[in-house]
Design goal:
Number of helices: 0
Number of strands: 11
Strand content: over 45%
Order of helices and strands: EEEEEEEEEEE
Largest sheet: 7 strands, mixed
Distance between the termini: 41 Å
Helix content: under 10%
Length: 123
């Protein structure tokens, strides 16, 4: 079993910064892609940023130049540094990771979600 624990959300003023973390633990042989999504009230969940095993990154147009995704493979952790935050960034942020898990003789890929962390940008 694999668990994801998110942290770092909160209330921040427009123009401020926050750093989200998502740590994976459990039966993990390797982690493939790591992704941040967000869901604002009344809206569908949207992809914010993705980082591959080779640390190639991609971002939603709405956050390019303001958000930075990174990963620490030794800690099985993905981060989202959010700068120049805007009220429209207000949402619940979720991490999603694709891992190789299971037992040594029986490995498989699986996808897991974090519990979500609230980010509120307001003055």
């Amino acid at each position: 079993q694999v668990q994801l624990v998110e942290s770092g959300g909160g209330l921040v003023q427009p123009g401020g910064s926050l750093r989200l973390s998502c740590a994976a633990s459990g039966s993990i042989f390797s982690i493939n892609s790591m992704v941040w999504y967000r869901q604002a009230p009344g809206k569908e969940r949207e992809l914010v940023a993705i980082i591959t095993t080779k640390s190639t990154t991609n971002y939603a147009d709405s956050v390019k130049g303001r958000f930075t995704i990174s990963r620490d493979n030794a800690k099985n952790t993905v981060y989202l540094q959010m700068n120049s935050l805007k009220p429209e960034d207000t949402a619940v942020y979720y991490c999603n990771v694709n891992v190789v898990t299971g037992r040594t003789w029986s490995r498989y890929e699986a996808e897991y979600w974090g519990q979500g962390t609230q980010v509120t940008v307001s003055s």
